[in-house]
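Limitations

Structures in this collection are predictions, not experimental determinations, and the ligand pose is part of the prediction. Treat each record accordingly. The example that follows, with zinc ion as the small molecule, is included so readers can see exactly what is and is not provided: the inputs are given verbatim, and the output is the predicted complex.
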Amino acid sequence: MSEMKSAPEVHGPDVFEYEGGRLCLVGSSCPQCGAAFYPPQAVCARCGHRGGDKLLLGPEGTVYTWSRVHRSTPEFKPPYVLVYVDFPQDVRVLMPLSDTAEPQIGDKVELAMEDGPRVEAGNLVPLVHARPVQK
Ligand SMILES: [Zn+2]
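Predicted complex:
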């Protein structure tokens, strides 16, 4: 069992790493009941067990559903597409899609580091995106 921070940065360097050259999200799994989470949880939301094991999510997942954002807060530059991605590790994560084309429910995506839609000091910020996998 590894020590986990109680409040990881959802978009910071603590939440992703490269495995075999491919981008993965860092989640956690409960060693007692097996529930999986993203971001990592210090206490299991299912059984209350304290502590979790590191669990890598990805590098590929499936589009559960999506929405195009036309208006947003000043920190995000529309238009952009948000997708819920189901990972094989039984975790669903909301993230931006790497392009503004319409995805299809069930499409395969892979994780990729790309700029936007978040803006800081007038510049698009690198963020983990879902990128469509060529069929
Ligand atoms: Zn648990």
